Amino acid sequence: MNNKRRTDFGVNTGSASLLMIFVVLCLVSFAALSIVSANADYKLNQKVADRTTAYYSACNETETAIADIDKTLKTTYETVSTRHEYFDLVGHDIHYAIPISDLQTLKITLNVLYPSAPDQPFYEITSWEVKTTGDLEYDSSLPVPK
């Protein structure tokens, strides 16, 4: 009889293949999650860029309107002779609104001033704010447990 012991490690070649399959599946899952996350970030950045462009476009339009108002106030100042007559023609406050989107509006309020000299300001900006004008609709399609 042969008294040699046979050592059995129990590691087969199939377990290495299973480990490789598991690693590849994990890597593919992480790659898919990365692509989905990058796509969501891209869409969000596009929305932010569009909203920012719309806001600054409304600001530029408002600045142009304020420049026109300033010219009108200067012309009115030069044609009238009294403070009372000036405020009768132009009023004390000017309210102006520019739509940014369907849901937002840029609202500006100017306080009209009567300067003591033509080189002084004719108005003072008292309000420059974005207001929500439409009804906000929230996505409630996902069930949230209470």
Q: What features would you highlight for this structure?
A:
alpha+beta, 18% strand, 3 strands, three-stranded antiparallel sheet, 2 helices, 146 residues
Number of extended strands = 3
Lateral arrangement of strands in the main beta sheet: 1-2-3
Low-confidence spans: none
Global morphology:
rod-shaped
Task: Look at the helices and sheets and give the structural class.
Answer: alpha+beta
* Mean residue pLDDT: 87
Rg result: 35 Å
Number of helices: 2
Largest sheet: 3 strands, antiparallel
Outline the structure in words.
The chain has 146 residues and is an alpha+beta fold. It has one domain. The protein has 2 helices and 3 strands, in the order ααβββ. The chain has a 3-stranded antiparallel beta sheet with strand order 1-2-3, with helices on one face. A hairpin with a 4-residue loop joins β1 and β2. It is rod-shaped. The mean pLDDT is 87.
Topology of this structure?
Layout lengths: L12 H67 L3 H8 L2 E7 L4 E9 L10 E10 L14
Antiparallel strand pairs: 1-2, 2-3
